[in-house]
Amino acid sequence: MSVQKIVLAYSGGLDTSVILKWLANEYGCPVIAYSADIGQKEDWEAVRAKGLATGAAKVVVSDLREEFVRDYIFPAFRANAIYEGSYLLGTSLARPLIAKEQVRIAAEEGADAVSHGATGKGNDQVRFELSYLALNPRLTIIAPWRLWDLNSRQKLVAFAKEHNIPVPVTKKNPYSSDENLLHISFEGGILEDPWNEPDEDMFKLTVSPEKAPDKPTYVEIEFEQGTPVAIDGERLGAVVLMTRLNSLGGANGIGRLDMVENRFVGMKSRGVYETPGGTILRAAHRDLETITLDREVMAIRDGLIPRYSQLIYNGFWFSPEMRLLQRTMDDAQATVTGTVRLKLYNGNCTPVGRKSVNSLYSESFATFEEDEVYNQADATGFIRLNGLRLRIQAHQRLK
């Protein structure tokens, strides 16, 4: 395979550092190391210096935080996206954005190839490469994990030591993790046995519910057409809003998840996640919908959530079916404007109040007291008509 210039999605960790050196040696062409800032706590100057020291012709760090929250997290949360009933898709949502910027940099730098550090067993290889193919199918895709013989952690470490690349992974911190403004994930190490409980000192974003404050914290979140815009009456930008919700959730032990999920490639995988702000946001959004969404609209929309979430998880963010579903999800949000009050306490996030100018809830209809707007006798005919098919079946059985 002959390529002239490669753009590598580079984190500065063991895998992509080894890949950077391997690409330069294997293809003998310039390799641009590209890092995406999507909210992970990182010393970007150190990443830049390490990339150059490892052999990168250039290191590009792109600040994608605003775009990530505005164009990926918020649209997904307008749709109440959730995979297999639990996972809020923190990694899945980030990959298409990282790939999109990588394709842009390739065009800007005149590169004809892109590369990533995803293994041949995981979902990320699919997410990256489906995005590349959707955005620029002319680019050559290089997936080292599917090409080389460095197929174990021990071989990677040996290669790194041979080429004087610092090795960040130790026995004390054996996990593979991914962090951004929505979550942090952990895989590997003792977590590979699904019977093992995660070590408490592994968690970074949340205190344990047992150690959370022994008094509730109340927070109000305001939405406009399904998009969060304010906390406690203060209008905030997208990044600041997510950061504040993460702090509130983390301090109250909210957002931990331990699950075994079905990867797109066919195997099951155990992952542990911290998604404090996202957990609060989804609870608030769904609660606001209870007073602002028509029953039948909600039922149809809810029926689409598993498919929508699966598309994100499997890497089809830039597909035509995804665009269709996003438009549908957003159309359903036209009336989802209002405020939800939540109580955060010992790992629990409980909506305790909601209000909206578009509220479909009518106290005069729902009251248990005397009213003049609802004739309870009307329910007799309603029940008998809805029970007609049941009565016919019962008569048939009794024959």
Describe the fold and architecture.
By secondary structure, the chain is an alpha/beta fold. The protein folds into three domains: 6-66 and 89-169, HUPs (Rossmann fold); 177-355, Argininosuccinate synthetase, chain A, domain 2 (Alpha-Beta Complex); 365-398, no CATH class. 42% of the residues lie in helices and 19% in strands. The chain has a five-stranded parallel sheet, with helices on both faces. Strands 10-9-8-13-14 form a five-stranded antiparallel sheet. The model has no long low-confidence stretch (mean pLDDT 95).
Essential attributes:
Rossmann fold; 5-stranded parallel β-sheet; Argininosuccinate synthetase, chain A, domain 2; alpha/beta; 19% strand; 13 helices; 5-stranded antiparallel β-sheet; 399 residues
Q: Give the CATH level 1 class of the largest domain.
A: Alpha Beta
Uncertain segments of ≥5 residues (pLDDT<50)? none
Order of helices and strands: EHEHEHHEHEHEEEEEHEEHHHEEHHH
How is the main sheet built? 5 strands, parallel
Indicate the percent of residues in helices: 40-55%
Number of helices: 13
Strand count: 14
How many structural domains? 3
Kindly identify the CATH topology of the largest domain.
Answer: Argininosuccinate synthetase, chain A, domain 2
Provide the spatial order of strands within the biggest beta sheet. Answer: 3-2-1-4-5
**Oligomer category:** single chain
CATH homologous superfamily label of the largest domain? Argininosuccinate synthetase, chain A, domain 2
Structural class: alpha/beta
Q: Look at the structure and give the mean pLDDT.
A: 95
- What CATH architecture label of the largest domain applies? Alpha-Beta Complex
Distance between the termini: 77 Å
Measured by DSSP, the beta-strand proportion falls in: 15-25%
* Overall 3D form: elongated
Rg, nearest Å? 25 Å
